[in-house]
Specification:
The chain is an alpha/beta fold and 205 residues long. The chain has 6 helices and 7 strands, in the order ααββαββαβααββ. The longest helix is centred in the last third of the chain and has 17 residues.
């Protein structure tokens, strides 16, 4: 990885996603987490302060060495054990049915093959396990969507492969997971980047 992607971009993402307002949204998304959790796109560990008491262990997947280094202080403060278990959410080094919960926050926008990652999430979840997510993606408002289409290529270049135009509900709906709850709303920030999908999907028993 180059200087920008390994050192500058992780700090920019940490600043952009570390606001109090987004922290409140993280807490909403993570409220149902319990037991052993796999977090894909762990980043600098911004979710750690928002996990509820029912979480007993967290397995983190993060491709960026810079983000993993930045996460170490938050990992040391966590109320439960946290360990890195890989760098690629599309190929998890875990056995089938290994975790109670999978979490992503503003992650599916960047994974090169989100369908493959969602299939992996389904595989490693226990029967009845939960996938908790808060993501950004394509807006249903035509004017916003047009701007998202225009900016998508630039966004991928400057934000580590992030896409503005993915339909998160459609991606999850096409996966083996079943959407059980979904909220859509504009969060803080530009409308092109802040149309959010917050919800829960489940692995069938």
């Amino acid at each position: 990885m180059g200087i920008y992607s390994n050192h500058i971009l992780p700090r920019l993402i940490h600043l952009a996603l570390g606001s109090k307002e987004l922290g409140q949204i993280r807490a909403r998304a993570l409220a149902g987490a319990q037991g052993v959790v796999l977090e894909a796109g762990f980043g600098s560990g911004l979710n750690l302060a928002h996990y509820p008491a029912g979480v007993t262990r967290l397995l983190a997947v993060e491709p960026s060495p810079g983000a993993r280094k930045m996460a170490r202080p938050a990992m040391a403060r966590a109320a439960f054990p946290v360990e890195f278990v890989g760098q690629d959410g599309q190929a998890l080094a875990l056995p089938d049915g290994a975790v109670d919960c999978v979490v992503t926050s503003w992650t599916l926008c960047t994974i090169p093959d989100p369908a493959r990652a969602l299939a992996e999430f389904h595989r490693v979840l226990k029967p009845g396990g939960r996938f908790l997510f808060v993501e950004h993606g394509l807006s249903p408002d035509a004017g916003v969507a047009r701007w998202q289409q225009r900016l998508d290529g630039l966004e991928q270049c400057i934000a580590g492969g992030c896409h503005l135009v993915r339909r998160i509900d459609a991606l999850i709906g096409a996966s083996p997971l079943r959407i059980a709850a979904l909220q859509n709303f504009y969060g803080p920030g530009p409308c092109t980047h802040a149309y959010f999908y917050l919800g829960r999907a489940e692995r069938a028993t």
